[in-house]
Amino acid sequence: MPGQAARLRGGTGEPAGNPRTRGIGPLRKLPGECSSNPDRKAGASELWRSRKIRGIRAGESVHNRMTTFSKKLARSFRGSIAQLCVGLDPDLHKIPNDLRNAKRPIFEFNKRVVDSAKNHCKIFKPQAAFYHAVGAEDELADTIRYIREEVPDSFVILDAKRGDVGHTSKMYALEAFDRYGADAVTVNPFLGLDCIEPFIEREDRGAIILCKTSNPGSGFLQDMHVDGNMLFEKVAAEAEELWQDKQNVMLVVGATFPREMSLTRKAAPSVPFLVPGIGSQNGSLASSIRNGRSSVSPNSLIISASRSIIYSGGGTPDGIEEAARRLSGEIAGYEAG
User: Fold this and answer.
1) Active site residue 161
2) Read out DSSP for 124-153?
3) Model confidence over 136-165: pLDDT tens digits?
4) Among 52, 71, 94, 161, the one annotated catalytic
């Protein structure tokens, strides 16, 4: 019997674009209405009008406009099998003292992280909860815009773990792709793959599906046996079907479970993995690259690290740069080995 992925063919016919052009009331503030540089004084209507005329979504560059998801991902990998991803999880209690009293401390800290890490990393992953919890949605939007401006061939993942019925998922897709301009968003498959469809309708955007996560309690559901396999293996197999059809899905597979990563790779030989659990969670980088690399896909693994990089050296530019340089070098070393 074909899996759910085999039944997800084509989109819903919903037009893409800004919510304001689709009869939806305005969001709190669209990122096209504010610049990542607060010194720029262009009016909001002028900024949005220019973007609308050019047909470019908020937070998006001309270079990204007509590029498929898989091609954008390949550019950020720069010919390697594995690439570093820096998570942008700004905690106001941990932001360095010299930025804590800034007018926009989260944005200023994120700028520091991006500037310090950009020579070693093209992929950034803001965690939505750290912005929504303190009303910093505009700083999230401006952070993504800043990455676009400062990091050529960047790839931005919105880590939001969305999962809801189809019509609600459409709104979450609008949030991730139109409001914030992310390339991909993490999603929860618990409600079924039809609820993931809104995130993979556009060929230039994609979904990163939770599969075998890095937290200690993940086995409660993910390791349950279904039709002779564990549930995470079934999710992986469905993702492989989607990848073969659309090439705009990935899987979240934690570094803290090396055996399960190997099984996931067998079930999904082509699908790129987002690998959390390196750094503060003490997952093994060596085993992740060994068990997670694909023999059929050149872009196998995005190795994600957040706290171990952004707060390194107390969150100083030198501390962040050194942590990113070191982990990026280790990834390259294990990949070559």
Assistant:
1) yes
2) EEEBTHHHHTTT-HHHHHHHHHHHHHHSTT
3) 999 999 999 999 999 999 999 999 999 999
4) 161
